[in-house]
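Journal club side-thread
Mid-discussion, someone asked how the predicted structure for our own chain would compare to the paper's figures. Pasting it here so we can look after the session.
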Amino acid sequence: MKVFHYSMHEGCASDIKNLLKKYDVDLTTIVPKERPHEKYIVTSERAECMWDEYKDTFLSSDAIIFSDTTPFSRCVLQNLDLLPQSIKVILWITNRFNYAIESDRSYYELLDRVKNDNRVYFLFSNRFERVYFSGFIALPNDKQISFTPYGKRNKDDFNMKNQKNHGGKLFVMSYQNEKEFYPLYDTLKNLGIDFYHKKEWIPKEEYCGPYDIETCSAVLHIPYAWGTVALWEYMALGKTFILPSLKWLDNAYKERYLFFQTHKSIDAISTFSDWYCKDNQDLFVYFDDIEQLSDILNDTDLLKEKGMKCFKRVQENNLQNHAIVENILDL
């Protein structure tokens, strides 16, 4: 079986690669090296150029997968009539299906036109992506497939010679919420908490991936998205996340600017985000006050217990992922 995967996210590309390793599949993956914002703006005309570029590959594949930002799929969807009935088209929606083309009505019309085609499958990485999609396109229930990130990465994919032993330090994420919008690093230093964070982007040839934090005790993060691939990668290593509680977030949003994708509704975050939804609440440790971190870090039994639950959840999800893929691709 020949599978072609086009993605704008290295983690999504790795997920599909590792997911399909157990099957007799000839996988070709394309991830553009340069990904500035303008590259995400996929108009109908640009999509037609993509069709012309990859047409032979599309037509010779048994399945075509698009992940991360869905607009790239329009190159195939607007040429669906030229595609043999045997070819499956999988849209794995992991980052807002209309990213960068929110006002393009022709895109919504296209998705609405193809939504009932039995060759097209819609996979959603979390609840938010599914609910957000349904606000624009009325998708039949049997087309709404939950498909969490796979998470499991192979050490052979990375340069493990650069892996360092962090001696059980806390790993702190280094996105804007931690680095710019909240004085997290200074607060931790004032609390006497020793931690590790990435000071800059790491060249790919030196990158250890999630294994960079294999020797860290836990992960501290102020969420900025409804869910991330990194969440499941770290959970697959048995690492638990220490997160601000919804109460903390609500107060913080009133006092300062913190970034969160799309909007900052506490009710929506508690219902639809991977970090706070009821199904996942027992996986993580939450704090109402930043000064609780010292006690949390000293409770090593709690962190190990949560980490094991995270690990088991990834295994459970992946069994479901394999069943979904096997059903779609007749593996």
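Post-session note: The mean pLDDT is 93.
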